[in-house]
Structure to design on (714 residues):
């Protein structure tokens, strides 16, 4: 049941820093007007008022605009009795009891406001006062016989009448009974202005980058007084009193502590020292806030891949370089799930962008490649991306990518890691839980490391290290209780919050290619544009080929899916599909490996055939596919130079025999376009029986005819 409140027009409610006064109350609620803004009103129901009164930023002052209340606010130091010291507060409560007792007896006509009546009714007034405060004979706990009982003396009639008048004029507020001697004391100046100036010098002497001690600062300050007195003695002026060391120390104790620390240790150190802990921003939904950072791993590893290391002779293995890799991590603050991970040789914007790309992907294939038991399905759009001020994150390339995705970027000031507490806490957890399990760890500092031979014990290659990290994150960290989640696991928190709120939508494929795709320039020809032997076309490219004099086209290629690319025609980006079917979802690494396998089998081939390339891709073992997936997370990923080299090696587009003949028979078999490369047919042999027929001569001429196009000169 909602309570109904009774307000007065002189009351004031302040909520969220906005002061309001009641105008009108009815059965449903009330209308309030903002203080200082006449005519601006707000209406609240009694339920909303009840919730408002429980909020920490709401204060209610009854009778705030009454004349008596305003008079007390000007003359009294506090707003409630509980702000007073305990002794003064007890005195005010006793004075209130005296006034209440007097008014009670006066209502019964047992006392009057005359000295004779007051003196005659004094015993009854004392007894009523003791009853109200529970002292003396009215105490709850009776005193033992012979034990002293403290009883306050009643004031004289004149003082009592003054208390009662002040109490009544203040609408019976006990604040009117606060003694005027509450803040009494000697406030006259002890030191002359010149002495105060010299004494204040102790602050500047102590606030020095050389960090003198307080004793040294006090002695130097007293030396200033001695020097001043020598000058005064020479001038015949009265000498100043030299303050004691305790007086100067008290003056130093009144200085601003932040100012002293900043002057002695630097502004950044002062900001860290005086930073107040907090819970950070409230994050309720998955992917609402994603924190991303880089960290140098506390373990020595062999800076190569396992396949290279195993083929090195023992003497070369001993000389091989060992070092520490950098790790890029992105974590969802609501569920504490890791949504991206990547190894890097050094902090750089390229690896930071590749780590950002993984946030939008289901990374379960990577977990399966590392033989993890759990899935790594955590992905989605980003609400706010929080990074530090590292060079990789403030670079133009990274910020341009973030802006292209339409993601809000937040870069807290440098030197304040607790503003990114979630990611910093994860790195600490990683150092405490995983690093002790690895040989070649470097510990947190040289003191903890001692004589531990980290370089000599380094035995993990990059792909081994990425497997270990994937296993820890996917199978251990995501499945163990998390303190910030009140014992819930990150996987369980992700499942629960996804069911309640969902995630922001992942950017569409065209946006992802514009933001993350490899930028290349291609010439427009009769087949569209070429990349790595595949030709791509769309309606916009065909229109440009017919009507535009510009033959240079900018493209963006997603190396994880070469089935289609983004092409820029004019000022607009368009999706362009591969003219050759069967390459949807095929990665650039798989295509290159398939072409390499076919060329190895047919070293003398002059043409590449699509079905054979597709069959070669299909023959790539699952182990190689896993190796490709894990390699993408290491520093040995596909570089732009490799892409350009592989693309230049394919001067002709991939076309099947049927496509080169200009005839593609229809087929309903979905597996008909399954990958290979065959050498061209020997035209010197006798034609097969299948070549006989009315169209065999025409097809033979078309096969032997030299095909020419705009791309022939590439």
């Amino acid at each position: 049941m909602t309570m109904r409140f009774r307000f007065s027009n002189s009351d004031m409610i302040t909520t969220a820093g906005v002061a309001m006064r009641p105008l009108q109350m009815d059965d449903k609620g009330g209308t309030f007007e903002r203080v200082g803004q006449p005519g601006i009103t707000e209406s609240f129901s009694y339920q909303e008022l009840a919730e408002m009164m429980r909020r920490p930023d709401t204060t209610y002052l009854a009778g705030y605009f009454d004349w008596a209340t305003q008079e007390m606010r000007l003359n009294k130091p506090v707003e409630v009795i509980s702000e007073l010291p305990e002794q003064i507060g007890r005195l005010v409560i006793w004075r209130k009891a005296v006034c209440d007792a007097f008014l009670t007896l006066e209502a019964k006509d047992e006392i009057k406001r005359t000295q004779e009546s007051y003196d005659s009714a004094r015993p009854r007034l004392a007894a009523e006062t003791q009853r109200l405060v529970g002292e003396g004979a009215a105490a709850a706990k009776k005193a033992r016989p012979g034990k002293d009982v403290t009883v306050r003396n009643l004031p004289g009639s004149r003082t009592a009448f003054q208390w009662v008048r002040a109490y009544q004029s203040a609408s019976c507020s006990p604040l009117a009974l606060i003694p005027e001697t509450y803040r009494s004391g000697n406030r006259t100046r002890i030191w002359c202005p010149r002495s105060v100036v010299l004494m204040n010098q102790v602050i500047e002497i102590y606030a020095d980058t050389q960090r003198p001690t307080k004793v040294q600062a006090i002695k130097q300050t007293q030396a200033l007084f001695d020097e001043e007195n020598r000058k005064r003695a020479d001038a015949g002026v009265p000498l100043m009193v030299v303050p004691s060391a305790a007086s100067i120390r008290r003056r130093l104790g009144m200085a601003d502590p932040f100012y002293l620390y900043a002057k002695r240790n630097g502004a950044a150190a002062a900001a860290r020292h005086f930073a107040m802990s907090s819970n950070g921003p409230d994050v309720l939904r998955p992917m609402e806030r994603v924190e991303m950072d880089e960290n140098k791993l506390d373990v020595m590893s062999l800076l190569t891949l396992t396949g290279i290391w195993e083929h090195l002779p023992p003497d070369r293995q001993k000389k091989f370089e060992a070092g520490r890799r950098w790790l890029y991590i992105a974590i969802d603050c609501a569920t504490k799930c890791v949504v991206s991970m990547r190894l890097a040789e050094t902090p750089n914007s390229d690896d930071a962008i590749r780590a950002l790309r993984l946030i939008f992907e289901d990374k379960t294939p990577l977990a399966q490649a590392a033989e993890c038991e759990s899935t790594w399905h955590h992905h989605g759009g980003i609400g706010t991306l929080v990074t530090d001020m590292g060079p990789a994150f403030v670079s133009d390339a990274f910020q341009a990518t973030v802006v292209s995705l339409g993601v809000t970027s937040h870069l807290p000031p440098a030197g304040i890691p607790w503003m990114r507490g979630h990611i910093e806490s994860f790195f600490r957890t990683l150092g405490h839980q995983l690093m002790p399990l690895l040989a070649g760890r470097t510990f947190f500092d040289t003191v903890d490391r001692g004589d531990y031979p980290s370089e000599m014990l380094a035995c993990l290659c990059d792909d081994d290290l990425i497997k270990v990290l994937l296993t820890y994150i996917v199978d251990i960290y995501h499945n163990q209780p998390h303190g910030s989640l009140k014992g819930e696991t990150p996987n369980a928190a992700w499942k629960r919050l996804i069911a309640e709120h969902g995630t922001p939508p992942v950017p569409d494929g065209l946006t992802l290619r514009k933001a993350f795709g490899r930028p290349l320039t291609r010439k427009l020809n009769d087949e569209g544009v070429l990349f790595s032997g595949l030709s791509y076309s769309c309606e916009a490219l065909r229109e440009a080929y017919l009507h535009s004099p510009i033959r240079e086209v900018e493209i963006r290629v997603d190396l994880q899916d070469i089935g289609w690319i983004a092409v820029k025609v004019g000022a607009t980006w368009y999706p362009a599909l591969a003219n050759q079917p069967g390459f949807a979802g095929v990665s650039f690494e798989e295509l290159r490996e398939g072409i390499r396998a076919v060329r190895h089998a047919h070293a003398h081939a002059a043409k590449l055939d699509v079905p054979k390339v597709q069959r070669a891709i299909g023959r790539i073992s699952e182990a190689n596919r896993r190796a490709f997936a894990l390699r993408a997370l290491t520093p040995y990923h596909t570089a732009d130079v490799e892409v350009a080299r592989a693309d230049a090696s394919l001067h002709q587009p991939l076309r099947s025999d049927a496509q080169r003949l200009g005839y593609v028979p229809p087929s309903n078999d979905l597996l008909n376009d399954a990958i290979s490369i065959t050498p061209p047919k020997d035209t010197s042999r006798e034609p097969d029986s299948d070549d006989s027929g009315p169209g065999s001569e025409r097809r033979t001429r078309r096969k032997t005819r030299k095909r020419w196009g705009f791309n022939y000169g590439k």
About this structure: The two ends are 83 Å apart (CA to CA). The mean pLDDT is 81. The chain is about 40% helix and 15% strand.
